[in-house]
Amino acid sequence: MYKVVVDDVTGGEIANIVKGSIEVKGLKIKFKGIAYGRYGGQNFAAKLSPASKKQIKEVFGDVSKFEEDFQQRMVRGDFEIDQAAAEASRAKGGHEHHNHG
Questions:
Q1: How many CA atoms lie within 13 A of 36 on its CB side?
Q2: Are 5 and 20 in contact (CB under 8 A)?
Q3: Is 37 left (phi over 0), alpha (psi -120 to 50) or beta?
Q4: pLDDT higher than threshold 70 for residue 26
Q5: What is the maximum alpha-carbon separation in the chain?
Q6: What pLDDT digit, counting tens, does each position of 84-101 carry?
Q7: Which of 14, 43, 44, 93 could form a disulfide with 74 if both were Cys (CB 3.0 to 4.6 A apart)?
Q8: H or E segment at 21?
Q9: How far is CA 64 from CA 15, 39, 70, in A?
Q10: pLDDT of 34-56, one tens digit each?
């Protein structure tokens, strides 16, 4: 079992860039992704670095199976918001942010 924590969301009307971490077995595996399609259905596309994919492979074995589960969690809203990190990001970035949660 793993936990998804979102600490930054930036974007606009059609898509948001989401950053955060996947927490499992004492590890924090960073991810970036794009959440889009608010009208007519949600979708989420994760972008995992080679280092993140390596960690996921070590913990979960099957990276593509993990990515599918991860995508479904994000679409369902099955994640936590790190409010402190989101506030810090908002204060320094000046971007338009959306809190989902």
A1: 7
A2: yes
A3: left
A4: yes
A5: 39
A6: 877 777 676 544 444 454
A7: 44
A8: strand 15-24
A9: 23, 27, 10
A10: 998 766 668 899 999 999 999 99
User: Average pLDDT in the 57-85 region?
Assistant: 93
The distance in angstroms from the start CA to the end CA of the chain is 20
Question: In terms of Cα–Cα distance, which of 8, 45, 1 is closest to 23?
Answer: 1
pLDDT reported for residue 85: 78
Alpha carbons 85 and 45: distance in angstroms, whole number? 22
Predicted local confidence at residue 88, as pLDDT:
75
Cα 93 from chain centre:
18
Tell which wins on pLDDT, 89 or 17: 17
